[in-house]
Amino acid sequence: MKRKIYLKMKSLVEARELWLNRFAGRNLLGEEEISVLEGLGRITSHPVFAGISSPPFHAAAMDGVAVHAERTYGAQERTPKKLKLNRDAFWINTGQPIPEGANSVIMVEKLLELADGFIEIHTAAYPWENVRKVGEDVVATELLFPRNHRIRPYDLGALLAADVDRILVWKRPRVTIIPTGNELLGPVGERTESVGVQGRIPESNSVILSAMVTESGGIPRIEGIVRDVYEDLHEAVRTAVESDAHMVIVNAGSSAGSEDYTYHVLEALGEVLVHGVAMMPGKPTILAEVSGKPVIGNPGYSVSATLSFDQFAAPLLYALQGIPEKTRKRVRVHLSRAVPSKLGVEEFLRVNLGRVNDRIVATPLPRGAGSITTLTRAEGIVRLSEFSEGLPRDAEAEAELLVEDAVLDRTLVVIGSHDMSIDVLGDLMKRDPRGFRLSSANVGSLGGLLALRNGCAHAAGSHLLEEDTGEYNRSYVKKYLPGMKVSLFHLVRREQGLILRKGNPKGIRGLEDLAREDVTFMNRQAGSGTRILLDFRLKQQGIDPTAIHGYDREEYTHMAVAVDVKSGVSDVGLGIFAAARALDLDFIPVVQEQYDLVIPSPFLEDERVRMLLDTAATEPFRERMMSLGGYDPGMSGEFWTEIGP
Asked: If you write DSSP's letter for every residue of 463-531 in order, what string do you get?
């Protein structure tokens, strides 16, 4: 079977319009009658009218006595009036019917009960004072809710108060999800093979999509995993479409690989409306109609799958139920670093957000379509136009919020060199009941100092070695932050060294072996403290960087370097001992270095920064760092110098 290449990829706007116009106006769901007690969150398919008035009688709005207002006229402080109980005045409680002949209620606090069966009042009542009239809230036959109204908790009370016990609602859309792929493994208890063997991975997308269906008001049904066999997928889709499902989602197999059969199956069973959308992630999305039902071929990468659902499945589910698509709040943000983009493709850039001074700073997360953690960590999404080639650093853009706006004011922004201590601090800070959180971005030590200079961060993690003095950070702060008053705090001392495959099969003994022809190296990005340390040591030993195979390949974190070594992409990389230990790799120490927090002094009064430093000085933090290996947190959180005017 021939590969299906994207020859007529549509823009996101075109694809959405075509998709929604095809199905949104159809009554695919049908309606059902349910008890009001089951109505929370359901969508009315017909207008709902009140069965009775509420209240159904004139009722007391206060505790006191019911009276005929005209009989109280003339009562004043100096000339009080006496009323005979059970003749002129009647005790009454809130909510009770007003007795015949009464038209007002005097509050109990405004009367004096006398011993002879009378009460004394000092203020006249006026007609209908403290009385809820018949139908004050709702009048019988009055419209309570229109068609396509989502029932909320307090709506249930209004329905019951108006004596409505059953309502007509749209049926909830049923969505069948078909996971596909030879590499997928089912739930733990059902597996006969192990993760990692012959490329096998846990199947997770269907659970994500199922939860998103539920959030969109639908009822999900996950089918068993279908292998990459055309006939099997054809049968699974045909069966799903012929069932009671209102929508079918086939997850994976939508791209142009040799075993991607989704397009061919949907083309055989129905009409393919779109194959390929100019969005990233999510380009391989397929939109089709089979037997009058919407069918989506979702990309296999997790981020692509969720964004495709967000753009096509969710809005159609809302439209079928007659309710508007959910929208996210949008805010103006400033990018902490430049972001290149590809013309002709609309990109959904996941970002961390935090408020620094009077600006919201957005720090881009990794852009891979398979990095599901970029969604779990993201606080916002910046959409880069298909007509843009990217945005420069500090450019203003619009971001869709994935968190509450108030969260940004409790977020501490730390940008700079990667270290596990920052992750530990972020975890410990979340234990504080004030709701502080730490948003970090790994751009290297120099990148962190530049972020401080540009007002994009509260603090930077830095371990920049001064070659002449062997001192860390001070000279770089003076050079890159001129005119700023900056405070430096100790965080950790840590072991940097060579990370090697288990058993060191290449027999690497030190930096001198990096220039061997049979050794491949993974470097850190330019501007990182680790890169500066490497260049310094290579210079000391007279090693030409151009002789190192892989010197120009870069990663942004120590863990990424360790993963490259673990997976065999590289033989060796320079990083911290804790990263090697985490992946059970070998390690040759090179140096114990100083990793500091660089903080503009005016921020020391900020409660988020104070929380950061206080947490760094605690025993729980020091114990956690010691347990990782290769760390000395003996002076963590201690101030050691201030630089600037």
From this structure: -PBPTTT--BSHHHHHHHSTT--EEEEEEEEEEEEEEE-TT-TT---SGGGGGSTT--EEEEPTTSHHH
Global pTM? 0.78
Element counts in the chain: helices (H) and strands (E): 17, 38
**Predicted confidence band of residue 285 (pLDDT cuts 50, 70, 90):** very high
- CA 121/CA 471 separation, integer angstroms: 87
Question: What is the rounded CA–CA span in Å between residue 412 and residue 401?
Answer: 17
Interatomic CA distance for residues 288 and 274, integer angstroms? 7
- Rounded to an integer, what distance in angstroms lies between the CA atom of residue 339 and that of residue 362? 11
Model confidence at 202, in pLDDT bands (50, 70, 90)? confident
* Least-confidence region, from 432-446, 513-527, 528-542: 432-446
% of the chain with per-residue pLDDT over 70:
95
Q: CA 545, 551, 555, 558 torsion: positive or negative? A: negative
Strands 48-49 and 143-145: antiparallel
Q: What does the radius of gyration of the chain's CA atoms come to, in whole angstroms? A: 34
The pLDDT confidence band at residue 195, using thresholds 50, 70 and 90, is low
Q: Which residues of 6-19 are buried (b: 16+ CB within 10 A; e: fewer)?
A: beebbebeebbeeb
Q: Are strands 247-251 and 293-298 parallel, antiparallel or unpaired?
A: parallel
Amino acid 286 reads I
End-to-end CA distance of the chain: 71
d(C-alpha 300, C-alpha 279), whole Å? 15
Give dist(CA 598, CA 596) in Å, integer: 6
d(CA 295, CA 248): 5
User: What token pair was written down for 211?
Assistant: 């939860």
Tens of pLDDT, residue by residue over 467-519, are: 888 889 999 999 999 999 999 999 999 999 999 999 999 999 999 999 999 99
CB proximity list for 266: less than 8 A, separation 6 or greater: 237, 250, 272, 286, 288, 290, 295, 297
Cα–Cα distance between 240 and 269 in angstroms, integer? 12
Q: So what's the pLDDT on residue 440?
A: 87
